[in-house]
Write a structure and sequence with these properties.
Elements: H1 3-12, H2 20-29, H3 32-46, H4 50-63
Helix pairs in contact: 1-4
């Protein structure tokens, strides 16, 4: 999964089939500190609203049936 594909998934909810397993693994296994850095980077580079990106992550995690309790 490229950075551009990750960015697109987090900003648009567009998750092509080939990145879905990678995105699920990231959301399930990445430390929260890493995910927070991703959110901050999208804020700084794209001007994205942090709360909106977190909401999108939650939506994607539920759609991808992530197991981590963080997304429940």
């Amino acid at each position: 999964m490229t950075a551009r594909k990750l960015e697109r998934a987090l900003l648009t909810a567009d998750t092509p089939g080939q990145i879905r397993p990678h995105l699920q693994a990231l959301l399930d296994e990445a430390p929260m500190s890493l995910l927070a850095k991703v959110v901050d980077e999208l804020y700084l580079e794209k001007g994205s609203v942090r709360a909106q990106v977190w909401s999108q992550m939650r939506h994607l995690a539920q759609d991808l049936k992530c197991f981590s309790g963080v997304w429940q």
